[in-house]
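To assess whether ligand presence alters the predicted conformation, the chain was also submitted together with glutamic acid. Input:
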Amino acid sequence: MEKRLRLAPSPTGLFHIGTARTALFNWLYAKKTNGKFLIRIEDTDFLRSKSEYTKNILEGLKWLGLEWDEEPVQQSNRISIHKNYIKKLLESGVAYRCFTSEEEIIELREEQKEKGLPPKHDNRHRNLSKKEIEAFISQGRTSVIRFKIDEKIEIIWEDKIRGEMKWQGKDLGGDLVLSRRACGYEIGDPLYNLAVVVDDNFMNITHVVRGEDHISNTAKQILIYRALDFKLPIFSHTPLILNNEGKKLSKRDCVTSIDEFRDMGYLPDALANYMSFLGWSPKNPENEILSLIDISKIFDLSDINKSGAKFNWEKLNWINAQYIKKMESSKLCEIIKKYWDKMGWESPSSDWDLKLTTLLKDSMVLLKDAIDQSKPFFTLPQIQKEGQEFLKNQECKESLKYILEHLRQENIVKLDKDNGKAIINKISKEHSIKKGIVMKALRVAFFGCLSGPDLLQSWELFSENKSDLLRIERCFKLP
Ligand code: GLU
């Protein structure tokens, strides 16, 4: 049977890294099994749902390469269908009208709090007679529809990630509310647990893969599946993504939306590659730099870890750097040139553009590094703090002094790979200064800092009008 998986995001915020990773696990399993990856936009929270968030989520999925196989289903279009199923549950007697007012619910909560009990509805209207219902309605009371939950029932399912899961009916908070409040005999707008079951059944979903925060919902939903005589899907609950302190990654951790990752200069393939290993690892880990299609071949839901996955920026950065390195230079050049355009930097020729791109490829971690790392090739960069500190070192400053003297003596105005290398060797040898120090001193003079692309290869690309001597001379004018 065809495997059908789905992502069911609520468009109440920007596309979040946690949702993206859930999408990825669903997509990988669908691809692995030649199945289908589908989207359902759960937009029934009318106050918080926004069409711009739907757009953001769909664009983010596309950017990551997680294309879906059928037209996305919009949950809000199916409200009347959800209501029909609620009606069915009412008619069969497994659901009922509950008239408990908001004030009464608060009262009940307070009582329970005082006794140190968890919040739980007392199912007070489970067995109302027709007359009692009529009386409540004529008093103008509104009602929700509640689904009966047997206190004694034990709900058991085999989770693909967690193995056998057990949940007790008595721990589900009392009879489950299926719809919002409505007047008279109306049925209010359906709520998540009912809508999700009806829609997953409608979309013929065979595997539900979602975050572990939905485990208790799964227990409730299984009861609705049974009551409606729907075929149960296979459930998998993925671990949370954690921050450095081991807490759930949240907005407080600065970067959480996929847009932010894109704007910081992460490549979609690199981010998707990294996210695949966030809570999952293959049985035989060999290479971690893999395309999504290659990952899908070795991916299995049962290899996803049960415990939380720590977000590791260093690893993500390392993977991004690998992707930049292996990117075709002409493609990378197009991206980098957009950054130059934004900065108003004009390059001498397309040949030069490509050469500089090829050079930067090995030292870039993020795409936006292209700005800082190409700046010294367009302007005279300021000597940054770390560079200034380094130049305070006696040997460092001396090596620049000797280099300057030599350049003046020999009338050299432009350094290149060959004369540069010869000068570094000569100064190091004659004055017993380690080559590394001489190189670093020159790096500070040319780049203003201690990082950046290969120095020897860089020289031929520095523009003629910014004299190489000037770059060195200014190091002596520092405070
Ligand atoms: N709309 C729910 C959410 O975003 C979907 C959960 C599910 O996959 O069932 O958390």
